[in-house]
Amino acid sequence: MAWSMWGLGGVLYLVGFYQRVAPAVMTDELTTDFGLSATTLGNLSAFYFYSYVFMQIPTGVLADRLGPRWLLTLGALCTGLGTCLFSSATAVSWAELGRLLIGGGVAVAFVCMLKLADHWLAPRHYALASGAALFLGIVGAVFAGVPLRLAIDAFGWRDVMLVSAVVPLVVAALIWWLVRDDPAERGYRSHGHVSPVGAPHRSVFAGLREVLRYRNTWILTLLPGGIVGAVLTFGGLWGVPFLTAHYGLTKTSAAAMTTALLIAWAAGGPILGVWSDRIGRRKPLYACSVGTLVLLWGALIFTPNLSITALAALLVIIGFLSGCMIIGFAFIKESVPREFSGTVSGVCNMGVMLGPMILQPGVGFILDRFTATVGGTAPLFHDLTAYRAGFSLMLVWLVIGFALILLSRETHCQNHTCNDMALEKPDGNS
Questions:
Q1: Could you give the C-alpha distances from 118 to 42, 178, 212, 257, 340, in angstroms and in order?
Q2: Which CATH number characterizes residue 65's domain?
Q3: Distance (Å, rounded) from C-alpha 145 to C-alpha 235?
């Protein structure tokens, strides 16, 4: 029962990942229908992330105060509505509004899943649940790869997106019917934190101010944006056109290559999360993974004429190691008082999505600046120099992230107590 409660939230998260990377296999259709440049295509895709990021702190706070059941139900309804609007849009502004609604709707899924896990699952399963959540998300991304490309070829992108709107609407009904915020509502013992009798009530902003007082909160919020931003900028938008243009792959083959990256990411999340639990430490595994990612992304971006085998191997290893970002959710939860687990998870997830929100349109902007035009017409081809310049933004963020993780404070997989919380605060007060 515990895993089923968590899993229904996971279905909405799966839908969110599907919508997150779907533009990667319909870049030509979107460009043609709405007359987009690389910059405006990146911006259309990023509208999903604008609302997603904006919703993270409210979601975390509301998950602590109101519970996940209401949030998941409303989020699924909003996702279905946004998908309908996106599929029927006749102008790019309506398509952007659809993406905005989709991003805002699915934004509640991950934090609510973590909140359900915190109450329904034993603490030793928390990192596993975080990694398994990523796995479910990548299942959605897989459907947005080759299967979506084949469906678009057969039926057109608008009809496929319209059918896709049915799933979140059904999910909304199931969540409202079955999900409960705490096992006590079903007559079982809860694993969640219960505030002591007489404990002072904190306002929403007081809780947010509290979690932002800890050094690890800042580090573990900024770091994963580089990891996830790189994966979703490449696998979620610009990887398919890059691979078709410079490695001669078909759209279906290029979609399969980026899907392999995402599948490896799904596998890496739970494996690295459990490994971190087993060794009883967060920082070493996280730091080693990020440092290796810097080297591997650098090789992918700047090594010319890679063989298809080497290219595929690089993408799979990069995807697997990118699963290390899952460690950060357990790491950051352990770095603040337990009653703020929902709030700090929302803050962390906001940082995760800042990456693709900034990098997808950022790479598009650089592609437009580097791409030659013929006769004053729209850019015809993004050359290798343009892609290297654009993808370098991903590399810079990862380098900064590696420097940041070295400054974090190890939690040894234990929730902080009142005595050691003071040691974590950047102001040095104790």
A1: 36, 18, 21, 35, 11
A2: 1.20.1250.20
A3: 9
pLDDT score, position 380: 42
Q: Are 405 and 223 in contact (CB under 8 A)?
A: yes
In a domain, 195, yes or no: no
- Residue 379: the pLDDT is 41
SS3 content of the chain, % helix, strand, coil (to 5): 80, 0, 20
DSSP summary character for residue 417: P
In-domain check, residue 272: yes
380 in any annotated domain: yes
For residue 197, being part of any structural domain is answered with no
Distance separating alpha carbons of residues 213 and 124, to the nearest angstrom? 26
Give pLDDT, residue 183. Answer: 82
**Residues 298-338: tens digit of each pLDDT:** 999 999 889 999 999 999 999 999 999 989 988 998 998 87
How many distinct structural domains can be found in the chain?
1
Whole-structure pTM value? 0.78
Range of the domain at 218: 2-184+204-424
